[in-house]
Write a structure and sequence with these properties.
Radius of gyration: 25 Å
Number of helices: 17
Largest sheet: 8 strands, parallel, barrel
Helix content: 40-55%
């Protein structure tokens, strides 16, 4: 089956709430809870999708025509792309009777592993949900990330005992589940955790620990303080708090604060490879995608997730090739990962400023002859990067850190005082 056929099948077998829309933007399900809708007015869920669409990407195809490597390494394991299936639970309640949580997780984990990525699995009040997910992860060689709800400490520790037996690549806690309306008042109880409680949980886990549900710089710093190896910037899917910012809006500040200190993942409204590229450019190391994977499993069974992964990976590679990333990062074994972790300024220069600082810095910058410069200011006024300084009737100076070799100064100097780079 191809992607369109799977969508068509999903519409016929999903429950009454999810419409398996061609573009999963939240408009059809909006406030439908139970169902895949958002909390309250659904403003957060709708905003998640919309804000990714407002991020624009500049195009430049004057670069080397080389194969694109989308592989991504996290905690010592290499994946085909920086893409993960997000944890989703209560399948029959929200998406229809075709699959329960155990069957869904079993299909999702194995098919994602075959596609070269990993699935985060959900948790539930029924202990069999976590047990089934861990069985599927163990059968896939640990290629999965069990996600424990923020239950009381006794329950969390008991679940972590079982997690260690499955030996997954990492373990997560969706701390944002404390705000889910359908978890309130349940037994065992679920709720917020302090930094000290999270530190105890992380120490007990003895695995790379991912905290999902970070939406502020301070929250990211607290996760780091607690000892987390990674965070997921998540709201989660607009289902925990109404009138919340989108993940796209808060990601850059969080990346600036803790980037390089822990792995940063993000979810919320990401629907194609171009969206994934935007998330990476804004500071994420990888992304989680939820509802579209549900549609793929409901419409395509074990075949569905692989079809979606292939589509997303091709779209991501195509976007990278159209943005003139040139040879950026190709000296390392994982070009995409290298650009994110070690060359972020250059990466942003390609996407935001539409130029390659690496290529431009390989040749000398224009120079101003102090004997010929009259201080007229024309070069300074016409420099698009504000790289030229100098007072009126005084010799001007070019800042090589700002200069992009555009040639505007050479063209506009009436005295021939500026020599072009060669």
């Amino acid at each position: 089956m191809d992607y369109s056929e799977i969508l068509k099948n999903a519409r016929e077998c999903s429950g009454p709430y999810c419409k398996a829309c061609p573009v999963c933007n939240g408009m059809a399900c909006r406030t439908q809870v139970p169902g895949p809708g958002g909390k309250g007015t659904a403003a957060t869920m709708l905003r998640n999708y919309q804000k990714w669409q407002e991020v624009c990407i500049n195009m430049d195809t004057i670069c080397e025509n080389a194969p694109i490597d989308t592989t991504f390494t996290m905690f010592g394991r290499t994946f085909a792309a920086p893409i993960f299936a997000a944890p989703v639970g209560a399948m029959k309640l929200h998406y229809g009777d075709k699959y329960d949580d155990l069957t869904y997780n079993d299909i999702l984990v194995s098919s994602c592993a075959q596609a070269g990525i990993a699935a985060f699995t959900g948790d539930g009040t029924n202990p069999a949900v976590m047990e089934g997910a861990l069985h599927a992860i163990a059968a896939s060689g640990g290629a999965g990330i069990p996600t424990v709800k923020p239950w009381n400490m006794e329950t969390v520790f008991a679940k972590l005992d079982a997690v260690r037996q499955a030996d997954p690549v990492a373990v997560a806690m969706d701390i944002d589940a404390a705000g889910l309306p359908f978890l309130k008042g349940l037994t065992p109880p679920a709720g917020s955790k302090t930094v000290e409680e999270l530190r105890q949980i992380i120490d007990y886990a003895k695995k790379p620990f991912i905290i999902k549900g970070i939406m502020t710089v301070r929250g990211a710093q607290k996760a780091l303080e607690a000892g987390a190896s990674a965070i997921v910037v998540s709201n989660p899917g607009g289902r925990a708090q109404d009138q919340c910012p989108s993940t796209a809006e808060v990601l850059p500040a969080i990346a600036d604060a803790v980037g390089g200190k822990l792995t940063i993942l993000v979810d919320g409204g990401l629907r194609n490879g171009t969206d994934i590229f935007k998330a990476l450019a804004l500071g994420a190391d990888g992304v989680l995608i939820g509802r579209p994977f549900v549609t793929m499993v409901y419409g395509g069974g074990a075949q569905g997730p692989g079809v979606l992964v292939k589509k997303l990976q091709e779209e991501l590679a195509d976007t990278i090739s159209k943005t003139a990333l040139c040879g950026l990062g190709q000296s390392a074994c994982k070009p995409v990962q290298s650009t994110l972790k070690y060359f972020r300024d250059e990466y942003l220069a390609h996407v935001v400023d539409h130029h390659c600082p690496i290529c431009n810095k390989e040749k000398p910058h224009p120079t101003i002859d102090p004997e010929k410069c009259k201080g007229c200011g024309k070069c300074r006024k016409n420099c698009p990067m504000e790289a030229i300084t100098g007072a009126a009737k005084q010799v001007h100076v070019i800042d090589p850190e700002k200069c992009i070799n555009c040639g505007a100064c050479v063209t506009n100097c009436p005295f021939g005082a500026i020599t072009a780079s060669k």
